[in-house]
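Lab meeting notes turned into a lecture example. A postdoc, R.K., suggested we walk through two folding results consecutively so the class can see how the record format repeats. The first protein's sequence and structure tokens come next.
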Amino acid sequence: MKRLTIMRGLPGSGKSTHIRENFPGATPFRMAPADWSPVVVSADHFFMNFFTGDYNFEASRQGEAHVQAQLSLIQALESGRSHVIVDNTHVQTWEWQVAAKLASLFGYTVEVIDVFDGGLSDEALAARNTHKVPAEVIARMRQKWELA
């Protein structure tokens, strides 16, 4: 059975930690061997140098990052990986439903894991997220949050 897992939650809520703890061996799709599973698709990977581990976010290139993530998702699904994980905030329903619709076209079952805020305040999320998203941006994202 092929499975797509959609992770959603505010920055710093624990999405990546959940993946590490619950999906052993999960590897970024761009780095995984052809037959490897599970693979992770994320817009964040666009800004990541996998050789040095450096993350260099550029707001002006965010659109490119999301297009690249969509292309990677399609490639991962087309390749028939047994488990694909999409890791993003997915604040609004339409953001993750695109991935779910694509997955259904390729015969995948879909599960959505919603960690929302991990029980943390905006300030705590800002302090612990690895992408330096400030508390005021997280607060705006929280206001737009739609239930799955």
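The second example is placed directly after the first for contrast:
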Amino acid sequence: MTGLPVEVEGAFGASDSSTHLAAALQAVRSYCGWHIGPVVTETLAVDGDGATSVNLPTLRLVSVTSLTVDGVTAEADSFEWAEDGRLRRSGGFGYKLLGVRAVVEHGLDGFPDDVAAVVCSLAGAGVALSGAGLLRQVGQVAYDTAGRASGGVDVLALSHKAILDKYKLPPC
């Protein structure tokens, strides 16, 4: 079951479908707006709006390896960052779409138990991936990648959202 957090993989035996787990994890991460955990190194890109601060899509920034603004590498002492994903730079961040690119380490040290429980709940409920994206089949109704059927039913229950809301990125 490659690509899934160990905490989630361990909840299911080898006979269970990794497709359901992958789809459930995708639904959770999409709802939260970031990968949550574990700590990974990746490049995050956001739009520059000329302001002196921007927010990267993370709730736990561990380090910033490099930063480019409008294609120009920023010196390490020309910006500062906070654990909640904020970057500040006195010279501003330009105006280009996706013009701010940061190579960072970010994420929680492990995959939270409460989030793993939501993923397992969704996987057990039959959330799956199709060629068109995320699907959930309940009786004769299939839900699309946004988790909505014609009746507007959501793949994530209110109880799931209540758990996930503390890991969800704030609106921009």
